[in-house]
Amino acid sequence: MQSSSLTTFNAQHNTIKDTSVLTSLSKLKELFLSRNEDRYDDIDLNPLQYLCQLTKLHIAYCGAFNIEILKPLTSLEELDISGCTNMGTYRLENQQKLIVLNLSNIKDSNVKFDFLKQFEFLKELIQQQRD
């Protein structure tokens, strides 16, 4: 089943559900920036370009939070959503590069992850290092 929405948010029971890819990615970008002390100079980038350049996404300790990423963010190597409480759903599909997924101390969460693709990627990475 195809979906045009990449992300779905529910923060402190204020539900934001977008069908526009760029709008949804903008919301994720805003959340990412609001939860980190670092500020970035590339704020004018198209949100999709911005997210596809990220190697680390840190949205830990943000309270109630729902996210779905249904298409690959190919540069993402580390996703840290540790310490989030009351997290309804986290789902990540078609992610080929993710190396670290930090879900420690997550409470009340429903996590779905495409482990088969992750395993295939790691197997390929190990093989490349051996060659």
Automatic annotation (TrEMBL):
Domain of life from the UniProt record: Eukaryota
Protein name: Leucine-rich repeat domain superfamily
Organism: Hexamita inflata
Lineage of source species: Eukaryota, Metamonada, Diplomonadida, Hexamitidae, Hexamitinae
